Each structure stands twice: as structure tokens, then as C-alpha cells.
Amino acid sequence: MMSMRSLCRIALCLGCLYTAAAGAAEPAFRAGFAERDITPEVGMEAPGGYGKAYHRSLHDPCKVRAAVFDEGAARVAIVGIDALFIRRPTVLAIRREIQEKCGIAPEAVMIAASHSHAAGPTGFFLPGEFDDATPLVKSLVYEKTVTAHPEYLARVQREIVAAVVAADAGKMPARAAAGFGRDEQAAFNRRFRMRDGFTMTHPGQGNPDILEPAGPMDPQVGVLGAWSTDGQFLGCVVNFACHATTGPGGISADWIYYLEKTIRGLMGDKAVVVFVPGMAGDVTQVDNRNPFQIKQFGEVSARYVGGRVGAEAIKTLVAVEQAAGPLSPLAAQSQVLKIGRRAPKPERVARALEIVQQDPGKVDATEWTFAKEIVVLDARVKKEPIADVEVQAVQVGPAVFLSCPAEYFCQYGLDIKAGSKFPFTFPVSLANDCIGYVPTEEALGPRGGGYETRLTSYSNLEPTAGRRIAEALIGLAAGLQPGAVPTPPPLPKFQGQPWSYGRVPPELD
Ligand SMILES: [Zn+2]
Predict the structure, then answer these.
(1) How far apart are CA 117 and CA 456, in angstroms?
(2) pLDDT at residue 3 in the model
(3) What are the start-end ranges of the H helices in 84-221?
(4) What's the gap in Å between 13 CA and the centre of ligand 1?
(5) Helix (H, G, I), strand (E, B) or coil at 261
(6) Does residue 283 lie in a domain region?
(7) Is there a domain that residue 13 lies in?
(8) What pLDDT digit, counting tens, does each position of 98-115 carry?
(9) For residue 1, what are the CA distances in angstroms to 331, 397, 483?
(10) The Cα angle at residue 95 between residues 32 and 128, in degrees rounded to 5
């Protein structure tokens, strides 16, 4: 792909030959942002657990937020949605429609779910997905597990397409820049090595058996901001690794609502804040080692996380604003890995079948839920033993968004950042599908364990999945050439005069 510098050089040469060619070096880079509402209705399913739950009130709207970047030769779209997840069939249908309506290539459209646990029913299972299963499995899926609401899902699909089409139609010549903020107090690894030698998820605040966290968090707040050429802030893409599980109460974008509010506080209400989650499979807002009685859920917690991450985003945006320029090149690549699922042993399936056929009120609720998961997983593995796992790279000049559909462990996000030669690498989880938790091999090893390693219909890829995804993403980044990091124009050699008011010795009398 032609670099901006060679384009400028060609433009300059043309300028030499044809003096009338003024304007040939106008930046081709354009950016557009748009958002659409996807707030579910009160009474709809509230996905977030392994069983059914329903929304009872509204806290704040759920949205689709889209950014489209264009340099003439290539176009990319980055979409964030306030949803727990989005499934691949929905994404493929959306990409087809986008391509028909505005021509953006399917592999250049990245759709990531914020993982808000207070959003609408976009899954987990899709309408009709288990219609060919046994009556027992069908009832366990459709009546006891989170399933998408067909009309709501159709609406989400429509609004994602509409947001991308609107962002594309609204593109204008732009300047953009990327940067990182840093916060170590908003998100925490939720897995701990315990005194008994094993690993536990959420051992409980103040548990004296905690030895140390079993994995890292990622303090970087990745930001890519765009301004019109006359200086109006258009929007930004923000990347941070933390579960959206604060639950301010009712339907909500979770802490992303406060992230947007914080950024809009300085940048204005027209600013579109596209949030794409980092690798937060084992990272949440809960600090299990905090020594004080503090609220780690609810309104206060949502404001705390969103406010802190938003403040870092703001600091970064004002820091890079004057450097922003046309970014180039734009590129996108995607690849589908075929990854096997872990199948439950027949004895375990038989035992689970016994448990789920007992009255849920008479069996331990956790035991019943995970027995149900084993029965559904068994049916899923039989019809779909290999998962399609899309890894994707979307490049905007010196920044690259590297995505996978997993609730992916944070360590892999750090590995991907370390393995990428891009100045700005933004790892994106829960993009273009949802394949459940993908832990590290260590977490699935003899000293591992914990919630994310449980075998369920949701999380079940073979232990090497995490490594394979990381290697594939690093490989995609290696195949792309980072564009130049924009800088403000260099200062010319000093030819001015010092300030006349300041050019005096001390005046004492
Ligand atoms: Zn999760």
C-alpha cells in the first residue's frame, strides 16, 4: 500500500509540473462517527448469568457506536455495542448488509461487544439454534438458558448497519491521533493463587488465604481520537480491559455510560465514544484485596470505573490533539481458526443428565446449573465439535486493533502488545462472535482452576486455544506496516525576536 509520504511526493512532483495542481496534497483521510439506540425493553431477558433473568427498570440507554475511517483506497469500520456479546451469524449478516449498502469490505468491519451485563438479549443461544436437539436439551436451552430475543436481535442488527452507514455517509476530512492513558486502580485481576496451591476466582474481599493475583491487569487506556480539519472533535475509540459488571441498577451500558459522560463533559455532547473492550476475561472492577469497606458494585462503582477510564481518555485526547494528522495506511485482515472443543466425558454427561432431571428446587442451584451446562455442551459438541474463531486486524495508520471473539485472558493481551511492532496496539475481545472464556494454559493446568476454567456450553475450547489465537493475532500484525505517528509541524529555525516585555535585566529602582 502506498504510504502517505510517497503520495505527498507524487503530489509535490505533480505540483512542479502543473502549477495549477494546488490542493493535490489535500489529505485523503476522512473519518465519520455515528450512534444508534439499542436499549432493550423492560421485561426482556437480561443476559449475564447461566440462567434466566429479566430487566425491571431503565438506568441509561444502550447504544451502537460506530467509527468509519477512509483514505480513498481503503475503508475500515470499528463498531462498539452495549451488549454482553454478539454471535457470529448475526455479525456475518450485518457485514453482508453493510457491504451491500455502502461497500465496506466484510473483513474491514469489526464489531465488539462491551460485555455489559445489564444490556439486551443478543444471545447467548440464537432462536432455532437447538431445534433439532432432544426435547430435554431444547427445554434446557430455551427455557433455562439465556437466549436471544428474535425481534430485539433483528433490531440490533438493523441499528448496527444503520450506524455504520450513517458514520460512512457523515465522513469528513479529518485529523486523528492515538495514545495511551494509564490507570492501575480501576480494574483488577479476579483470580488468585491460594494457600492450598490452587487458583480461585473471586475468593472474597479480605480472604486471608489469598497469596497473590494469578494474572495481570492491563493499565493502558488506548485511545484513537479524530477531529475535523477545522478542529471540531468528532469522536474517539477507547480500549480498556475490564468486565462491564458494575451493574448500576436496571438496563445500562454499565460503566461505559460514565466513560461516555466523562469524555462528553469536555468534548461536547456530539462526541461519539466507541468503546471496544480489551482482553478482560479475568479482569473486573472488583478489588478482592482492598482493605476497606467500599462499594464494588452499583452506581458508585460504575461512576468510579467510567470516570477514571474516561479521565485517562480525556488526558490522552488533549495530549495528542495538536499532533493529530491524516493517518495512513488503512488496512484490515481476518482469518478463521478452527479450534476443537473440550468434550465432557460420557460418565459426566450421564451424571449431569440425572441431576438436571431432578427438581431444580431440590438440588444445589450451582450444581444444577453446571449439570445443565454439561448436558447442553454435550449436544453442542455433537453438532459442532470444532469452533470457527475469527481473528482480525484493523489498522488505522500507526494503530492496530487486534481482535478475537473470546473472553480472553489479560495476559494474552499483554503478550499481543509485546509481540506487535505497532506503536499503538489495541487488543479487542468479544469481537465478531463470542466463544466464551479462553484462559491461559497455566489456568487450565494442575495448579489452575477457577470459574473461567469450568467446562460449560459457553466456555469449552481446547487448552491451546489461547496460545493459537495470540500467535495468529501477532502474525496478522506482523503482516501490516505501521504508518507514521503524526507529530505537530516542526519548529523552524529561530528567527524571531524575544518578547519585548521580557527582555530586560532586573529592575530594582
Ligand atoms: Zn465475563
Answers:
(1) 18
(2) 41
(3) 88-102, 135-144, 150-169
(4) 55
(5) helix
(6) yes
(7) no
(8) 999 999 999 999 999 999
(9) 9, 12, 10
(10) 135
Q: How many domains does the structure of the chain reveal? A: 1
CA–centroid distance, 173 to ligand 1, in Å, is 38
- C-alpha 28 to ligand 1 mean position (Å): 40
Q: Is the pLDDT of residue 167 over 90?
A: yes
Distance 456 CA to ligand 1 centre (A): 13
User: Average pLDDT, whole number, for the chain?
Assistant: 93
- Does residue 63 lie within any of the structural domains? yes
CA of 436 to the centre of ligand 1 (A): 8
Contacts of 346 (CB under 8 A, 6+ apart): none
Tell me: cis bond preceding 329? Omega within 30 of 0 counts: yes
Q: What is the pLDDT of residue 10?
A: 37
Asked whether the whole model's pTM tops 0.90, one would answer yes
pLDDT band at 11 (very low <50, low <70, confident <90, very high): very low
Residue 490, in any domain of the structure: no
For residue 113, how far is its CA from the centre of ligand 1 (angstroms)?
A: 11
Give the amino acid at 31: A
CA 124 to ligand 1 center in whole angstroms: 12
Beta bridge mates, 77:
68, 109
User: Of 189, 242, 184, 243, nearest to 213 (Cα)?
Assistant: 189
- Alpha carbon of 437 to ligand 1 centroid (Å): 7
DSSP string, 342-391: PPPPHHHHHHHHHHHTS-GGGS-HHHHHHHHHHHHHHHHHHH--EEEEEE
Domain extent at residue 200: 29-328+404-450
Please tell me the distance between residue 245's alpha carbon and the centre of ligand 1 in angstroms: 8
249 CA from centroid of ligand 1 (Å): 18
Q: How far is the CA of 115 from the centre of ligand 1 (A)?
A: 7
H-helix or E-strand spanning residue 414: helix 410-419
Mean pLDDT for 67-72 is 97
Distance 407 CA to ligand 1 centre (A): 6
Ligand 1 geometric centre to CA of 130 (Å) = 23
CA distances to 100, 281, 286 from 297, rounded to whole Å, are 43, 18, 8
Residue 46 to residues 119, 252, 337, 467, 487: CA-CA distances in angstroms?
6, 10, 30, 32, 45
CA atoms of 25 and 28, how far apart (whole Å): 8
